[in-house]
């Protein structure tokens, strides 16, 4: 698949995870595109009156004033290759935290996350774009951030720019872009990573009506190609449209899990 | 000496905080994660430190394209909108040199032969050190958005700054080489020493810079303190004056208490002094550089784990 010609980066990481995951008795070497989350706990430090200052540290470094906020409390879920799973829940229920753990941006406090294959995370569009650099230069930098080699970016460059429909502006600094154009370019790079696993966190409301339709079509095409998708959104109809299965997170725990329509309906009709 | 005591307790506080930090993290959770790169994980503790380091470096190597992309970004942004481009980075040492030449030849009459060359041979390596430290300290905070949203080995950020500055330093050295040859300083036989000194300077600076880049996320005051500290460090380093001007009793303390002194003496000794370094100076520099790098990287690795949550 996409990983065949790929280089180290995510692939190497996935190999490591897979090996250990298998040893734990997951049935020896899960297939590429599997996400396996077991008893995942994640906490942040919630600082009361955070000063970040040296004085603070020195005066009371033994009793730094924070409490642990457990954003995820024992989440277990498994996504099979080619499956599209939605994650829904109220604000602050831990959806983004879950995706960050899968993307390795943060490390679990407890439990395991193993992902096989190349991951592309749409947690943020245009990560690392520099306003003074041109669209062309930024595509290369952003591509490198998402784990593409220069060669890969060069090979897909026309496709990326074509998708964003920004041919005319590609050699202008991105500070001259409108916010929609900026997002378009970021989205185009991210979906051309050719991943095995795609993580989407509420970034589909990109650009105008026409471009949004294009994004949805692109996601559907990736799904058809067998890319595993973990999809976070508050747009329930969209979640139903994209996902085979939905997980409802409530204050860090899985409250319901099952067929999209059922869980979405349950969530929509929740009492409190 | 209350001031010294205070400094000592500051240092101890910092260390305590860093260590306590990770120890608490370990105690509070049974971490099982399929990742040999995690330093300090329970099963990791049994692994040898060297093994962890190799795994980490191997992963870093697989992200070399990103590292390079960030270096190119730094360089492009720096020189993008200026007609003179790279020459701006030469302007700073040249102007400083002119000022000090004036001060030393007319005001103090220090009587140093070819003062500009003497000065540049020390100032260029110092500039590399100082600029790297100052930029690295703010680098993680500046890239907070990236760190929170994208996975990559965090050392890529300070390393990209170090490499950018190293490239600038190299270009400035080439200019200095041209000046030296024009003034009849035939330094070419000593070039290997200069290259070795540059490598050691890179390691030493890298260790300090990596530590500061991660520490500044936890102690934001470092953003203000580091430029101040660097300035004080500057006057404790023989850059604008020769070390021989310092009374012999204090000289040894300066030479061995501040690794920047022997490091700069390697550059100056070979380029301006046209002489071979003493063995013990070379050994001292090597030990200090490797130790600083290992310690800085080690502390960095501990602090980097929670960076995305704290930045
Ligand atoms: N960097 C952080 N530091 C401290 N607490 C955090 C941090 N990031 C998230 N949290 C906390 O963790 C909890 C879960 O946050 P998360 O971003 O995962 O929610 P979410 O489900 O994505 O919400 P939303 O629907 O608003 O995007 C929240 O209570 C939030 O306050
Ligand atoms: Mg969120």
How would you characterize the overall build of this protein?
The complex is a heterodimer of chains A (272) and B (311). Chain A contains nine helices and nine strands. Chain A has 272 residues and is of the alpha/beta class. Chain A has a single domain, classed as P-loop containing nucleotide triphosphate hydrolases (Rossmann fold, 3-Layer(aba) Sandwich). In chain A, helix 7 (209-224) links the parallel strand 6 and strand 7 (228-232). In chain A, helix 4 (135-145) crosses helix 5. Chain A is globular. The longest helix of chain B is centred in the middle third of the chain and has 28 residues, at 115-142. Chain B has 14 helices and no strands. Chain B has one domain. Chain B has 311 residues and is mainly α. In chain B, helix 4 packs across helix 8, helix 6 packs across helix 12 (260-271) and helix 8 (156-182) packs antiparallel against helix 9. The chains are: A alpha/beta (272), B mainly alpha (311). The interface between A and B is large, with 53 and 52 residues. The structure holds adenosine-5'-triphosphate and magnesium ion. Adenosine-5'-triphosphate (ATP) binds at residues 44, 46, 69, 71, 89, 91-97 of chain A. Residues 44, 46, 69, 71, 89, 91-97 of chain A line the site of adenosine-5'-triphosphate.
């Amino acid at each position: 698949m996409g990983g065949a010609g790929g280089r180290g980066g995510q692939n190497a990481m996935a190999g490591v995870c897979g090996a250990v995951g298998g040893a734990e008795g997951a049935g020896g070497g899960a297939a590429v595109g599997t996400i396996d989350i077991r008893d995942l706990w994640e906490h942040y430090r919630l600082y009361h009156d955070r000063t970040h200052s040296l004085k603070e540290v020195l005066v009371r470094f033994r009793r730094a004033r924070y409490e642990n906020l457990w954003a995820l409390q024992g989440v277990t879920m498994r996504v099979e290759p080619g499956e599209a799973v939605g994650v829904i829940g109220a604000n602050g229920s831990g959806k983004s935290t879950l995706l960050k753990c899968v993307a390795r941006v943060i490390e679990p406090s407890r439990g395991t996350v193993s992902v096989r294959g190349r991951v592309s995370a749409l947690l943020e569009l245009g990560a690392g774009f520099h306003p003074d650099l041109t669209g062309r230069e930024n595509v290369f930098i952003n591509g490198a951030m998402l784990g593409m080699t220069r060669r890969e970016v060069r090979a897909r460059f026309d496709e990326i720019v074509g998708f964003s429909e920004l041919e005319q502006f590609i050699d202008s600094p991105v500070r001259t872009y409108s916010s929609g154009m900026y997002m378009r370019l970021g989205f185009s790079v991210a979906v051309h990573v050719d991943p095995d696993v795609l993580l989407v966190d509420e970034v589909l409301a990109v650009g105008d009506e026409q471009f949004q339709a294009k994004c949805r079509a692109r996601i559907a095409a990736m799904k058809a190609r067998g890319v595993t998708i973990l999809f976070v959104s508050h747009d329930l109809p969209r979640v139903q449209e994209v996902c085979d299965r939905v997980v409802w997170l409530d204050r860090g725990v899985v409250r319901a899990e099952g067929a999209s329509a059922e869980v979405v309906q349950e969530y929509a009709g929740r009492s409190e | 000496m209350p001031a010294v005591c205070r400094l000592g307790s500051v240092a101890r506080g910092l260390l305590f905080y860093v260590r306590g930090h990770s120890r608490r993290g370990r105690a509070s959770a049974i971490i099982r994660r399929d990742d040999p790169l995690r330093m300090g994980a329970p099963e990791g503790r049994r692994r040898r430190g060297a093994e962890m380091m190799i795994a980490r470096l191997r992963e870093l190597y697989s992200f070399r394209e990103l590292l390079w992309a960030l270096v190119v970004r730094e360089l492009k942004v720096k020189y993008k909108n200026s007609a003179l481009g790279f020459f701006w980075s030469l302007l700073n040492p040249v102007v400083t040199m002119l000022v000090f030449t004036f001060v030393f030849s007319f005001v103090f009459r220090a009587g140093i032969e070819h003062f500009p060359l003497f000065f540049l041979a020390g100032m260029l390596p110092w500039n590399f050190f100082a600029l790297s430290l100052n930029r690295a300290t703010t680098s993680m905070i500046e890239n907070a958005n990236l760190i929170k949203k994208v996975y990559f080995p965090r050392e890529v950020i300070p390393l990209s700054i170090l490499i950018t500055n190293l490239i600038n330093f190299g270009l400035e050295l080439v200019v200095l080489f041209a000046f030296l040859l024009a003034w009849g300083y035939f330094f070419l036989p000593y070039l290997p020493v200069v290259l070795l000194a540059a490598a050691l300077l890179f390691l030493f600076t890298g260790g300090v810079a990596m530590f500061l880049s991660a520490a500044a996320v936890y102690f934001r005051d470092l953003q203000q303190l580091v430029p101040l500290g660097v300035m004080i460090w500057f006057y404790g380093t023989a850059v604008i004056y020769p070390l021989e001007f310092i009374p012999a009793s204090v000289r040894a303390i300066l030479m061995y208490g501040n690794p920047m002194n022997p490091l700069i003496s390697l550059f100056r000794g070979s380029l301006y002094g046209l002489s071979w370094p003493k063995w013990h100076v070379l050994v001292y520099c090597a030990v200090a550089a490797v130790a600083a790098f290992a310690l800085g990287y080690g502390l960095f690795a501990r602090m980097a784990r929670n960076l995305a949550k704290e930045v």
